[in-house]
Every structure is written in C-alpha cells, then in structure tokens.
C-alpha cells in the first residue's frame, strides 16, 4: 500500500470553472477574484478579503500595510515554515523568535511577553497545523503594549476559537498552496476588519495603485488571477465537508494510535488538521521511525526538521547564533505528520495505525 502525505483534489467542477474564465473577458484579477474575496471573508466573519498570488505575498502585503519596516521587530515562532520569517526580513524588519507551548506547539504568550522590547512593533502567531494559537491572550498582550496583531493563518482555513473564526483577531494571511485544506493552485488571502489596512493591501498588490497609472505608494504585482479564484470558489464549497473528513480521520487516529503522543486540543478550539502531527517518546529515534514508515508505504513527513533560527541564512546573521529555544528544539527532533487528507480511506487509516504502532 502506498499512502502519500497529501493528495490535492481538482475535480470536473474546478475544470469547468476555469474553462468559463478562459471563455470570458478576464484572465487576471477580475470579477471572480472579487467574488472569491467576498465569499472567503464572509466564511470567516471578516469585513474585507484581499486575494494575492500566494501565501507569502499575503504575509508581505499585510506586514507592509501596517508600516512595519527597518528598525522594527516582529515576534514570531521559530517552529514554522520559513516564509513566516522571510516576509519580515523582506521589509527590512527583524524577526524575533520566541519559544512555543509544549502542548499545542503554538507560540507561547509567556515567551512573547518576555521578548518584547522598545523596538517591538508586532506579534505574529502561527496557527500551526490548523490549530489556533492563543488569540485571546495575544489580543490582550497587543492591547497592553500598543502592538500590531498579525495572524499567519496559512494552515488554518475555517479554524476557530469558540464561535470566532481565525482571521478576525488581527490582520490575517492565508495560503491556497495545493496541499492546503483548499487550493487555488497557488494563491493567498489577507483578511482584515480595518478599512484602511484593506485599502493599503489592495494598493500593495497592484503596484501601489488605487487609480490606474497613479501610484500612491511602492507596490508590487501580488495579484491573483480569475482562473485561480474560480478554482477557489469551487473548493470553498467543498471545504466544510473536507474539514469534517479531516476531523474524523484525526479522531480515529486519536482513538487507535498507542505508540506516539497524539495532538491535544484546548477546550473550545476548532482544529482543522492541515497536518495531523504526533510526537515520539523521549529517546526514540524519530528519523528511524519515519524512514521505516516511508519504506512501508506510509507517506509521513517532518514539519519542520530544522527550526528557522537554526537555518543557515539566520546563523549567518548577527544576533541569532546564541538564540536558544528549548521547547522548539526538542520538538523538531520528535514530531512527524501522518496522512490526513479528506479522501483517505478506512483501509488506509487502519494501515497507517498498524504501521505507526509497529514502528515505535
């Protein structure tokens, strides 16, 4: 049996939606993008949605719209994909890495408060694997210190705390990369309730223009195409059922995995399981376990094997060689993720459980 770590789905409806765009008058940003923006914002309870070319450009546009730049610091986790940090570097600001909570794997509010300096401009939690970060605490910290609250929601489509969806606590950035919970092939989205931030993000993604050929600020080509948006609209219709499938697979794993530590979800939090990530016991060779599983046809992967502050590019910069994040560094040696995509079959789930329990 060969079970991949992810299995993106593009069906006939998506193909027909793209064909309709190709037969119409718009190829780049047009009416489908506007429709997708409105629908995605409404799904999450946000006032504004601004579509971009990918998740990284969504992060960059959100950061730039808030005026973050040289001399500013943004506190983030190191246990994340590299773009969480690189988008901060891209505007000339400095990423400051704080440690994570050992239970949720998300940014620790206590570590964040300890990392705040007079240069701190913003805090950007990551909703890692689809589990919301502790946004009530981060909202309170930002209000207390007068800081900007950003959300790296690349993996958190439809995630929520209580009745409040991710994407409404701060300025949030989503990704629609093929392996995400829904896709536009490539694409991103900024959600915000702030009219002025929305206006700036729209200009940033379109070469700094509000009126064509009148450039008010320095901007870029961060636009989404109508073809991508058409795919996104179809995938949005599938997302609620797909999310239920992911949650169901996770519940099965929770009930049957015996040799690894399964995810812990805070009460009232909705985890959407972009990844289902487990932790091997102390002393177990994680890499040997994942090697065996892949050889046995279970496509597992480590997200992420090297924390960002230990990446070569950061080790070559001043001020990062002595950064020590004990929880982050421990987890990068112990976690791995299992297949949890919606079309995973009962037979495949049984095989995954069998092999994981045997491997550890």
SSE pattern, N- to C-terminal: HHEHEHEHEHEEEEEHEEHEEHHHEH
Q: Any idea what the CATH architecture of the largest domain is? A: 3-Layer(aba) Sandwich
Cα end-to-end separation: 19 Å
Record field, number of beta strands: 14
**Can you count the helices?**
12
Structural class per helix/strand content? Answer: alpha/beta
* Averaged pLDDT: 97
β content, as a range? 5-15%
Main-sheet strand order equals: 1-9-8-5-4-2-3
Tell me about the largest β-sheet.
7 strands, mixed
- Integer tally of domains: 2
Radius of gyration: 20 Å
* Model regions low in confidence, pLDDT < 50 over at least 5 residues: none
Q: Write the CATH fold name of the largest domain.
A: Aspartate Aminotransferase, domain 2
Considering the protein shown, what is the CATH homologous superfamily of the largest domain?
A: Type I PLP-dependent aspartate aminotransferase-like (Major domain)
* Broad CATH class of the largest domain: Alpha Beta
Helix content: 25-40%
What secondary-structure arrangement, pairings included, does this model have?
Blueprint: H1 12-22, H2 31-44, E1 48-52, H3 55-65, E2 73-77, H4 83-89, E3 94-98, H5 109-115, E4 120-123, H6 135-145, E5 148-152, E6 160-161, E7 164-165, E8 171-175, E9 188-192, H7 195-204, E10 209-211, E11 214-215, H8 226-256, E12 269-270, E13 276-279, H9 286-295, H10 312-315, H11 326-331, E14 335-338, H12 346-359
Parallel strand pairs: 2-3, 2-4, 4-5, 5-8
Antiparallel strand pairs: 1-9, 6-7, 6-12, 8-9, 10-11, 13-14
């Amino acid at each position: 049996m060969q079970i991949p770590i992810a299995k993106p789905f593009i069906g006939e409806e998506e193909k027909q939606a793209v064909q309709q765009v190709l037969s119409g008058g718009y190829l780049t940003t047009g009416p489908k993008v506007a429709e997708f923006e409105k629908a995605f914002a409404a799904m999450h309870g946000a006032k504004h949605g601004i579509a971009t070319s990918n998740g990284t450009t969504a992060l960059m546009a959100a950061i730039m719209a808030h005026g973050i730049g040289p001399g500013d610091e943004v506190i983030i986790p190191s246990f994340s994909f590299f773009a969480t940090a690189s988008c901060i570097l891209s505007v000339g600001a400095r990423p400051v890495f704080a440690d994570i909570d050992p239970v949720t794997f998300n940014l620790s509010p206590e570590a964040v408060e300890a990392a705040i300096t007079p240069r701190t401009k913003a805090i950007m939690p990551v909703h890692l694997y689809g589990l919301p970060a502790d946004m009530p605490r981060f909202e309170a910290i930002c209000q207390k210190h007068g800081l900007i609250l950003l959300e790296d929601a690349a993996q958190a489509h439809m995630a929520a705390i209580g009745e409040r969806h991710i994407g409404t606590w701060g300025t949030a950035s989503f990704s629609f990369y093929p392996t995400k919970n829904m896709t536009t092939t490539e694409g991103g989205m900024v959600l915000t309730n702030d009219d002025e931030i929305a206006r700036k993000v729209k200009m940033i993604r379109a070469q700094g223009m509000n009126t064509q050929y009148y450039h008010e600020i320095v901007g870029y080509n961060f636009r989404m195409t109508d073809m991508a948006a058409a795919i996104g609209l179809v995938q949005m219709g599938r997302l609620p059922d797909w999310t239920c499938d992911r949650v169901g697979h996770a519940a099965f794993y929770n009930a049957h995995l015996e040799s690894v530590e399964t995810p812990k979800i805070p009460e009232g939090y909705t985890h959407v399981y972009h990844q289902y990530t487990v932790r091997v016991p102390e002393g177990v060779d994680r890499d040997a376990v994942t090697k065996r599983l892949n050889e046995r046809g279970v496509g597992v992967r480590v997200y992420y094997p090297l924390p960002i502050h230990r990446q070569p590019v950061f080790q070559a910069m001043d001020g990062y060689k002595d950064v020590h994040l004990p929880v982050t560094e421990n987890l990068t040696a112990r976690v791995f993720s299992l297949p949890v995509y919606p079309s995973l079959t009962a037979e495949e789930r049984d095989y995954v459980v069998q092999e994981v329990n045997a491997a550890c």
